[in-house]
Amino acid sequence: MIIFAGIDGTSSEEGTAENPGDYQKSFQNSFVNCLQRNEWQEAQFDKTWYLRGPFTSGFDTRARAEKAYDWVVEQWEKNNAKAVFLGGYSRGAAAVLEVSKWLKYRKNIPVEGLILFDAVDRTNTLGNEGGNWGNVIFNTPIPDTVKWVIYPQRNIWTTHSRLSFGNCGFMRESNSTIFLHEKFFATHGGMGGTPWLKSVLPFTNIPNPTGLIWEPGEVLTSLVTPSADQAGAKRVENWTKEKLGFVFAECKARLEKENPVTANPGFQTPNYGGIGIQPGNGGGQRTYVVQPGDWLSKIAQKYYGDPMKYTVIHKANLGVIGPDPNVIKPGQKLIIP
Asked: Which of 38, 153, 252, 329, by CA, is between 20 and 30 Å from 242?
């Protein structure tokens, strides 16, 4: 069973699970909400959990993180969950990052994928457990039990969006965590799937003469128009779907390999001249022996700095690996083109 827990972004709007109110109206199409409703075909989770984001003060951030942690632990220990995905937006992203840390140090539960939509930590209620676990705001490291991080971030300098906000989530305990990161021309709202629909002066409904988005609480306007923000949000969605789809497929293949159901008797190893050589096996070609816990994207990251180049390795080693790039075995000797 693959599970997903998500915490959405910050808002002063009221709303509870029983009476969602204005918050649910504003965040009904947020990316975290779409994920928990399984609306993205790239990742269909077996069980999901969702919580609205913290209020503007941020004092409730830790309490929301604890609820997410409790749900994940219950699914892992009682309901046989085998893989955990966490997702969050803004302060909600900071909260699920903290959850991933607690899962390691309290229960030694790994996280398959951590999806951080423009993570922001503007609270003193997270990262205060001492030791080396990250007891400084903005400075909680991603634990090495997180396999993948998918991190779309607003480009602060080209958008001037939320200049007063600092991002978190870039420190890692180990390079074993594969980090997929991209900056986008979108406001902080657009990064979470809640782009601005109109340009008004802060705390009013008066149109901003410049046509630019002026986010409440900021001294200066952003450099983003509502139409550009909506286009930017769509680019964030497409990029995240692509990366998440790849990570989710890797996860499913690993679980199927660990718990095989059926074999694939229809596949036969191609014959490359009858002498066991593989395509691209020229003189001086690099080789790699698969180790326990390896997967092709991890090897591609090691050699090319890009996990998406796993297809290059798969194509060069089709006779060894077979048709499924997600199934490799320790001891296999692979050619690295």
From this structure: 329
Do 321 and 237 lie in one domain? The reply is: no
Q: Are residues 170 and 305 in the same domain?
A: no
Interatomic CA distance for residues 213 and 186, integer angstroms = 11
- Residue 263 inside a domain? The answer is no
Strand partners, 85: 4, 113
Q: In which residue are the tokens 């969006």 written?
A: 161
Dist CA 69 CA 263 (whole Å): 36
* 195-224 b/e (C-beta count within 10 Å ≥ 16 → b): bbeebbeeeeeeebeeebbbbeebeebbbb
Q: How does pLDDT run across 51-82, given as a tens digit for each residue? A: 988 888 778 888 999 999 999 999 999 999 99
Domain that holds residue 67: 2-255
pLDDT in tens, 212-264: 999 999 999 999 999 999 999 999 999 999 999 999 999 999 898 887 654 44
Pull the structure tokens for residue 192.
């979470």
**Cβ-contact 177, 144 below 8 angstroms:** yes
User: Based on the domain organization, do 163 and 291 belong to the same domain?
Assistant: no
CATH of the domain at 86: 3.40.50
Residues 306 and 251 in one domain: no
Angle at 7 between CA 94 and CA 36, to 5 degrees: 140
C-alpha span between 46 and 307 (Å, rounded): 26
Q: Phi-psi category of 282—alpha, beta or left, where left has phi over 0 and alpha has psi -120 to 50?
A: beta
In a domain, 280, yes or no: no
**Same domain for 232 and 303?**
no
- Model pTM score: 0.76
Q: Which of helix, strand or coil describes residue 53?
A: coil
